[in-house]
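Hi R.,

Here's the chain you asked about this morning:
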Amino acid sequence: MTTVLIDYDAGNLHSAEKAFQRMSAEVGTGALIVTADPDAVAKADRIVLPGDGAFPACRAGLKAIDGLEEALLQAVEIDAKPFMGICVGMQMMARVGLEYEDVEGFGWIDGVVDRIIPSDPALKIPHMGWNDLQIDVHHPVLEGVSTGEHAYFVHSYAMRVDTPLQRLAHVDYGGDVTAIVGRDNLVGMQFHPEKSQSAGLRLIANFLGWRP
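And the predicted structure, written out as tokens:
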């Protein structure tokens, strides 16, 4: 089995690569490939889409690589391969992102990505650092991860999910902020699981062993 971590120049993937390699070895789920090759994405058993920075730039970067988005859509929508989006990679799962301009997402999750506006003006944006996960919906990828465990966030925009069952977990930052989304063969994490210590590694291992 092969897991592909898509590299489309949307951030430093070193930490994510190391975390997925470690858990792939522990779980025994085969090779991890970091690539932008559409053929490798098409042949992969599992797909991970990271993303750092702004929604429009990440969306444009993905589209700029010939055949990559088409291979991703085929693998996820038609072939129903397990997919994980991380940070902006999760945000692109929404219908639309409203960062700087309105940019269409994949429409896999019924939600909109908009700026975080905490109810407490003392809370700074970006939402940066550790926060406690609040589990909303049980899911196999969350097995062994409990409410109160910590995850590491760095973001100014977050997804407002319109279908409650698709929001698997949230955190409190002057109001609910979506942390994990999912449905069918899809899961997305606003935080960085590769930087979230034991809880993050558990989520990665669960994803690698997940068979939707």
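The chain has six helices and 14 strands.

Let me know if you need anything else.
M.
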